[in-house]
Design a protein that fits this description.
0% strand, single chain, DUF465_sf
């Protein structure tokens, strides 16, 4: 669905405490989580405003968001 939030805490509420703990205590996780959040926000804004952008840019942004989400998920489900 266009414009839908894919924030980590929205998609994985059962891991809220773990995610917040990792953000506070793991600088690499925090950096990746911030990048994920920024990408998700940018993608949603572009979708909601129907802003002109190339398909290639949107595909790359969504791909990067997906890769980051997988990486982050693996980290917070291991703890």
């Amino acid at each position: 669905m266009l414009g839908e939030s894919h924030a980590l805490l929205v998609d994985f509420p059962e891991y809220t405490v773990t995610i917040l703990t990792l953000i506070d205590g793991d600088s690499e996780f925090a950096t990746n989580a911030r990048r994920y959040h920024d990408l998700d926000t940018e993608i949603r804004k572009l979708e909601l405003r129907n802003s002109p952008t190339s398909d290639e840019f949107m595909h790359q942004a969504k791909h990067e968001r997906s890769v980051l989400k997988d990486k982050l998920y693996l980290q917070f489900t291991k703890t």
